[in-house]
Amino acid sequence: MRYLQIHRIICTAIIISFYSSGYTAALEVTHQPKSGQFESINAALKKAKPGETITIIDNSAPYTEVILISKENITLRADSSLDKPPIITAGIENEVVLDCKSAGSTFENITIFANTNQIGFRTEKDAALLNCTIKGGIYSFEQQAGTISLTNCNIGSDSIKSACLIRSGKTRFNKCTMTSPGVSLTIQTDKPQLTEVICEFSVIKAQPSEKGLGSLIVLNPGTHPDQKRRLLIDNCDLIGKGQNAGGGKEGWHIGGGIYYYGPADVTVIDTIFYDLGYPFLLIQANNQPEGYLLNEDYCLYQKTTINVPLFLRKGSLMNLLGNNSKIVIEPIYVNPEARDYRLFKDSPPTKINSTGTPSYAGSQGVSDLAADCGDWQRVETTILSGFNNMYNCHIIEESEDPYRYKMYFFGWAANTCNSGYSGCDAIFLARSKDLVHWQVYCGDNSLWDGTGNAELWVPVITADNKFYDQWHNGDPSVVKHNGTYYMAYSATGFDADGVPEGLPSDTDAYISVVMGAFSTDGIHWQRSAAPLLMCGDEIGRHESQRAADYYGVFHRPSLMLDEGKWRLWFDYWHPKPNACSMGLAECPSGADPMNPDSWTIVHPLSKPLLINWPNPDIIKVDGTYYSFSDPSGYPGAKGWSSRQIREARSIDGLNWVVLDFIPPDSDTPSCHVPEAFLTTINGQKWMYLFYACQIGGDPYDYRYDRVRAMRREIQK
Length: 716
Hints:
The protein is an all-beta fold. Among the domains are: about 25-110, no CATH class; about 375-715, Glycosyl hydrolase domain, family 43 (Tachylectin-2, Chain A, 5 Propeller). About 0% of the residues lie in helices and about 40% in strands. The chain contains two helices and 53 strands. The strands form nine sheets. Strands 1-2-5-8-11-14-17-20-23-26-29-31 form a twelve-stranded parallel beta sheet, with helices on one face. A nine-stranded parallel beta sheet has the order 3-6-9-12-15-18-21-24-27, with no helix packed on it. A nine-stranded parallel beta sheet has the order 4-7-10-13-16-19-22-25-28. A hairpin with a 5-residue loop joins strand 49 and strand 50.
């Protein structure tokens, strides 16, 4: 259906692609070498030619040796079959464990351990580190020059000095973690050339210490009078430990976010600061910097006077104030007990909830959303196929049933619009013991198809004969509570004139609503008496007549019972960006969730929770809300493929931080309509993400012909 297709696309997940220099031979290192293998990394390096790869195939014991890279384009990597990275360390008399002095080196899946007064990894040439861990040392990582990229790396120092010390060159940290009891990242310029550091989608956090903490990031004054420094912090989490004394230095920059001396260009974009020792996130001292740029309303400051221009990119609180203006910035709200620092656009909140944090829907503040998940595991294995066009696979778990997993999904089974049944789109049911092998309901509780023969499948919900429910039934979201199944789902009808959209006599196109249904067995359902959510302005109104104040087309619900209160996220049309955006309605504890009068949209429709966030699905894990959607904007793509899965996180379900896109599978142009699910397997907690794969091709086929899932580990 044309009007449904604008909602159908998904995709988020984080895939890291990397480049390894071409090589002519692989030199293998093992503690028990055979003919042609090497017992040490240095022995392999001595044999290696520029451009060759050294592969460590044995992790049974550490490799105790000082590594000096003096040949260009060398790759040092761990074999992919190893269950954990091999460890490289050095004797205490050595200064550096791994010293890179030639350009083009690549290091993959290795762990470096440094002793107290050592440097773990040092480089003065171009290099790349991927999936590496560098621990210990006075500095874990030191860059003296060159262009360095670090991806999925974990860097942690035991020293109160710094985990990462950048002296010159260009450094990019992508999806990395930096931890230290002192300073996690230090930029100290000793050369006149520009020193640039980019941190994106990374976590920079403090490690508890009896000596207290320095700031998480420090830009120290360098030795060169013409020093030039640039720092970009983009979509990162900066997490302190709440300490406000340390180092034995009264007035030291203790427990803060970013602290810098001298001229520097500092940009902070969509970044979260949490649990800092002082109620400030960015300060400067001594020589005034040239200026700095802030994005959104995520930053809060200690009261201070700054003799520089200030930019607030998207916020309404401040604008450019001009050169050499005297600017006094004060915190509007500080909650020292929760250490949840927020900046409010309009006014401070008047209501504080039980956790001590403000309850204010207009806030853009967010709290600690540090990564608590591993990477996505993707095998691109199809778990359901054989249908014409189906998607939106919502999973529930019933541990007492041998088929513990139930999947509600919808679309067209054997043919377009499910001929033989009322309406067009319909909702179906499947069951599984292991989340991999599925059987679809075939009209009797004893009849289930596990062969992918969609001709046998029977829907559990089809369209009704109401003006708002007579064509499309889909997007099921199900919660089982006290033995009863509750469902919220999308429904569309021909609107007030009863004429299908597109016919000559049609005057009002269609209407889209969120319906409810309940069941005692999950198969036979009774609908709510009326839509749970419906935009009254949409009745009898043609969608092409959307005015600047029109907010309608309620669709794609995600239902949750959250600490006794029912919550229902949904998408709707927002006129200003002309995009589907996310809203939230709530039903109070004790009220009937199948009664439309029980539901209230908790924010003005003119202020969506997220703009450009169609097909939202929400799951809650250990106090953090995760939302998955399939918005547009995927880099380098057009049309359907510009929409892919994306993730957002929140501490309250209202204020969200959007993460990066998840690229599509290798054999499909687009992955869409994500549905998250939490389960425990063999004692390990996993988050699964089910999604549908689009056919694509030329001409482009928008239908989905297979369902897959990825998963990631929930870490304790």
